[in-house]
What we know:
Distance between the termini: 66 Å
Largest sheet: 7 strands, mixed
Amino acid sequence: PWDSSRFLAALPKTTERICVLDRTKEQGSQGEPLFLEVSTTLKAMSKPNIVCIGGRYGLGSKEFTPNMVLSVYENLKKDTPKPRFTVGIIDDVTHLSLPVGDWLNVLPKGTTECMFYGLGSDGTVGANKSAVKMIAMGTELYAQAYFEYDAKKSGGVTISHLRFGPQPIYAPYNVRAADYLAIHKPSYVANYDMTRYMKPNGVCVINCSWSVAELETKLPPKMRRDLATRKAKLYIIDATQIAVKAGLGKRINMIMQSVFFKLSGVMPFEEAIEMLKKSIKKMYGKKGDKVVKMNIDGVDASIEGIVQCDVPSSWTSLKVESEASDTKKQKVAYGKGPRMFPEVQDADQFAKQVQAPCNNLDGNALPVSAFVPGGRVPCGTSQYEKRGIAINVPKVDMDKCTQCNKCSLICPHAAVRPFLATGQELAKAPAAFKDGSRSAIGGGVLDNYQYRIQVSPWDCTGCELCVRICPADALTLGPAEKVIQEEEANWNFAVTLPDRGDEIDKT
């Protein structure tokens, strides 16, 4: 319960203004609970000379950062401060949001901040947790870690926020000025704005199979420009290939962890590697000496695989068409007025205006007007994601296919589907799709159609379940980049074919 006497006893005699922050929103109320308690106490105790205003923060899991705190104080010191406000969101409906300035670094001197972009189930988060424990317990450094998880869990985006320093760290918010940036999935560089939170003179490491010469075409213009203007050090490593050779499969966590200790400078490298190998023995000892040896071999091979890349000065003048983090350019087409939009049922429009920024890790920049009250979302929007996270994607040999459809049934993401097409429809199909179609078996109405199993290379997650269940070995895995080039046009045509499920006798 609220204790008015204790509150007044703690209030300095020189108090002129009070700003009360609540992390809740009370619909239909004159104010939020804590604000009402403070206001009532001041009124009841005859202190009308103290100005009291109230605001909301942290709603919808939004962060509360130092620059937001500054905006609250700047509002409070105005001659006529905004009496009711919210901070941390862009409120273009009720116009209660406070403007937030540039990022403020209030961390102790010597603090190193790191960000790791990983793929759910690749071991990145687990390795970072063990690294934080190693450094915090094995050295004099203080450590802090936060982890962001995609709702998709396995196969989704994970972001690890780590801080290390000689002094205690009080920062209950994510890293927004990274000294060390690790990108563990090469497709991320095209899908997301990877360098927006990187400090000048920072270190950027990319796990990829590209050569140094290929970076000119593989890295997007904005990323190249940011690396050059911020004078960053750029490194690449094919951790996936090293993991495969060491027998670790897709798990690149220990390899990238040793790269982190080598390049970040958080602690002496030799000391860090010795601690890392001890933690491997402790972590995997129960699984046998073979598993321990594979991980240690991966750590030893990782350092030789690091390639430092030059960052040409010409990249500083690159032109960028659009900035993903530029909220001023994110115009939402929904009109003002009664906020029950029939357009929200249009999955294509919703995907462009709401889903695309969220998928680009830029959902926090969406204004209030982009959302419909009640949180209604149209169906069928996963088709617009096209994450491209698979390392290897299956291809179908239709000469071996028995048309059992087991691959389609077992695919968890509906990325493998059977299609029926008429001869007239196939005349408009890409040559590879047409050549790969075979006469449908089963008799009856199926005699009128050609059959084909088609894989969506951008939606496939590389789980390999379809390859394992195929009784005829008709599915084989190929490098994702190559399969995307070969099959993307085929999939785009296949999804235009009509659904013929009603014509099939399912009894």
